[in-house]
Amino acid sequence: xxxxxxxxxxxxxxxxxxxxxxxxxxxxxxxxxxxxxxxxxxxxxxxxxxxxxxxxxxxxxxxxxxxxxxxx
Amino acid sequence: xxxxxxxxxxxxxxxxxxxxxxxxxxxxxxxxxxxxxxxxxxxxxxxxxxxxxxxxxxxxxxxxxxxxxxxxxxxxxxxxxxxxxxxxxxxxxxxxxxxxxxxxxxxxxxxxxxxxxxxxxxxxxxxxxxxxxxxxxxxxxxxxxxxxxxxxxxxxxxxxxxxxxxxxxxxxxxxxxxxxxxxxxxxxxxxxxxxxxxxxxxxxxxxxxxxxxxxxxxxxxxxxxxxxxxxxxxxxxxxxxxxxxxxxxxxxxxxxxxxxxxxxxxxxxxxxxxxxxxxxxxxxxxxxxxxxxxxxxxxxxxxxxxxxxxxxxxxxxxxxxxxxxxxxxxxxxxxxxxxxxxxxxxxxxxxxxxxxxxxxxxxxxxxxxxxxxxxxxxxxxxxxxxxxxxxxxxxxxxxxxxxxxxxxxxxxxxxxxxxxxxxxxxxxxxxxxxxxxxxxxxxxxxxxxxxxxxxxxxxxxxxxxxxxxxxxxxxxxxxxxxxxxxxxxxxxxxxxxxxxxxxxxxxxxxxxxxxxxxxxxxxxxxxxxxxxxxxxxxxxxxxxxxxxxxxxxxxxxxxxxxxxxxxxxxxxxxxxxxxxxxxxxxxxxxxxxxxxxxxxxxxxxxxxxxxxxxxxxxxxxxxxxxxxxxxxxxxxxxxxxxxxxxxxxxxxxxxxxxxxxxxxxxxxxxxxxxxxxxxxxxxxxxxxxxxxxxxxxxxxxxxxxxxxxxxxxxxxxxxxxxxxxxxxxxxxxxxxxxxxxxxxxxxxxxxxxxxxxxxxxxxxxx
Lengths: 72, 766
Fold this sequence. Notes:
The structure holds 2 protein chains of 2 kinds.
Chain A: E1 11-17, H1 23-27, E2 35-41, E3 48-52, E4 55-59, H2 61-64, E5 67-71
Chain B: H1 3-7, E1 10-15, H2 21-29, E2 33-37, E3 44-49, E4 53-54, E5 61-63, E6 69-72, H3 84-93, E7 105-111, H4 115-126, E8 132-137, H5 142-145, E9 147-149, H6 151-158, E10 162-164, H7 173-181, H8 196-212, H9 217-229, H10 231-235, H11 237-240, H12 242-257, H13 265-281, E11 282-284, H14 293-301, H15 306-347, H16 352-369, H17 372-388, H18 390-403, H19 412-417, H20 422-428, H21 435-444, H22 454-464, E12 469-470, E13 474-475, H23 476-503, E14 513-514, H24 523-557, H25 565-591, H26 599-629, H27 631-643, H28 650-658, H29 665-673, H30 685-693, H31 705-717, H32 722-732, H33 736-762
Parallel strand pairs in B: 1-6, 1-7, 7-8, 8-10
Antiparallel strand pairs in B: 2-3, 3-6, 4-5, 9-11, 12-13
Helix pairs in contact in B: 4-13, 6-13, 8-9, 8-12, 15-16, 15-17, 16-24, 17-24, 20-32, 21-23, 22-23, 22-30, 22-31, 23-31, 24-32, 25-26, 27-28, 28-29, 31-33, 32-33
């Protein structure tokens, strides 16, 4: 499952990447083993607001699609 | 002066965005600051002199630290260059900026409430092997966040001094200053580990780089790893160390073949070190998952329904402020300019110099200054939005919509700023990380209805749009005004879409954005930034307008001509008649004959009035004659054949030429041409009536409502603003895109006006 498929309120753990490596997301801490909470979606359904390592991050769904996650 | 003080010459502040780095910079430097640009890029270089170390409680500086320069590097999450900001920060730290050696000390500013992610950049900085001090900032927010940090433990793990600060209250600033002036030895790096396969590959690369370049040994590993994992960093070496460059390419191919995911090696390696350290030194005192105030605000502000409504409300308040709260201040500035003009007239000797200074220079500069209140207000609101953290939320809310035209949420603010003036809008585009998106934004921002268009809109709407209202609620005039703004904005979106689709292809880079916690803005720094930014506007725009106003005034005033014989005779006759009438009145008074006091006196008085009026008409006509035959008038005549299909006669054409400096100039230019008196403004009835009454030789009206609409639309699209071009040139570092900008906007203006005028005539409207 990829990160963009998660619904608001869901939590998951990063396990790997699909396709292009989202370097910026990795620098922001979304390395394998990191747990993520989807806080909400923007009013138009995209981007998504994530909580990672205690801070909030806005990520577009097409970029979140590069992050492979597993339900925590 | 101690030895260390002479040794430390430059201090660089590095850190993530939103960690209070600039506040800390202000606290360290006090008022000794200057803002410049890094060579060749639009990244601001903020620097200042380290203020003296304060003694005791009296606040007086006891030790001054002369010559210590503090540089506030752009806020970045990483030193691996993906944006211009990151590249500048990295280059500055390794001494690769021309004429700027690497800093003697680095202060790495860290948000204590968000330690884990902040440590990523810290570990990168420590790898550079420079003397480094970590400023653990925002410690005043730790209690509320329910966090405790083992500072000594953190310092031990990082191997560098860690100073607790709270830049807002000034806590820890003295300690930080002392730590900087007595710098630690060069940092050793934290000893994070790359995955073995990559580590094995980097070691020989570092050796190769050392053999081929003058990179200090302590930085070789970092540089080699950077080149291996990042294309921009590798490109640096293509010429400077070609063999190393080739080695890296070979190594990448070998790793790809195995396969080893070397590109993520740095991130996983660093976080592999950071996560356990953070777990050790950070203690969560409040229950995890507790809902903070920030979370509560966010739930409302980014809510599916409330979010957009609140954003709309905020915009409404800003527009309201910019358009109406600014009016008293604008009136005051106009009054001041008027008074200054009178003062100058009284002091300066009559003549050409006086005319140039008052009518040319002062009026021109006044035309710019009058927008200052609006710009100050806009910067104030933008500053509040930025400092509270709301700005990031607007980008979050709007991103999806903006993407439809190839922009991102980050373009919302530049586009909004441009409603006041394109200049702050263009400058606000600096925050965009993606260079292509930045260029697109700059290219379309001048289509937004800026405040300089207002006087033009007001004049022609008041003259040609009826004052009535639709259903008694929506005034036609207001509706017309709104339509012009909507038209400009829609065209800006369309232009962005076209540019993204055909010129700057692709979907744009990533839009990963931190949503910082909400914070109270600090009035002191809001004010300072507002003043700084406005200064830039006044100085840059003012310089251009000052010169151009003088040129335009000369073009509109020369060559000086005598009145043509018929007009001269008319003026003379009127003056003579007035003089005769005055003499007759004097005669009557002297004769003392009471019987003449009645009807005869009344008829002479009315004759005098008529003669005076005729004299004024002749005077104004002479002024009009002068303008018609001035250089600008001749230019207007020459342009008339081109502008005729839009419904514009030579007078409007001349006005458009004159308003190339700034849109609102067309109002005063038309006032001069129509001899309505040079001090007429867009509210002036004389000008409005003269425009409505003007006819061609065949008796048809020059200005029909159709012509007015055509002209209004022309002003919606045309880039009649020297200052915008000048700023765009500065921000884009070339005249190419500003030239394209002017060209495409002219084509839009001409095309739309042409279609409206010709189409309207076909429909029998004009």
